[in-house]
Amino acid sequence: MQESMDNKVTVNDSETSNTSSMSSSSSSSSSSSTPKKRKSKKKHSKAAKKHKREHKTFRQRVQTPSEIVCRYRSILKTLPKTKTMTKAFQKHGIDRNTVVCTSALGELAIAAPEVYEETLAKRSTGETVLAFAKRCEAAIQKDEELKEKIEIMKAKGTLLPMRRNKPV
């Protein structure tokens, strides 16, 4: 009987020695991997990527009718390259609604320069650009022949194909 107990003891001793050697080996392997960490790559956010695409972020305020006509012509030049009006407006840093409100100036200056010059001569010093654009729209609406000419030019692509819901 004593022998069997001794066997148990030896078995227990060997098990304990095995487990202790395993724990020491596992602790030594984990200690070697702990100080070395791999560097992970920084992921760029979508906002940072989007910011790179936008080259022109400033906007210039247009204050005179001649500047509006110049802006209208530059958008007209950009349109074939960008394929869509939305992209052309984004490239120039301008809102579509702003172009719609002032497009009568550009249309009148390109389609009928003499009528534009007459309207410009009657402009008072305190008149806003938007009020002047409304007067240009009224001049277009008054003359049916000019109105038809502008529609034909829009169809050909020599003017921006803007549609206004409410004529002034």
UniProtKB/TrEMBL annotation:
This is Coiled-coil domain-containing protein 106-like. Residues 1-13 have a biased composition (Polar residues). Residues 35-59 have a biased composition (Basic residues). Residues 14-34 have a biased composition (Low complexity). Transmembrane segments: none annotated. Residues 1-60 are annotated as: Disordered. It comes from the Eukaryota. PANTHER family: COILED-COIL DOMAIN-CONTAINING PROTEIN 106, COILED-COIL DOMAIN-CONTAINING PROTEIN 106-RELATED. InterPro entries: CCDC106. GO terms for cellular component: nucleoplasm.
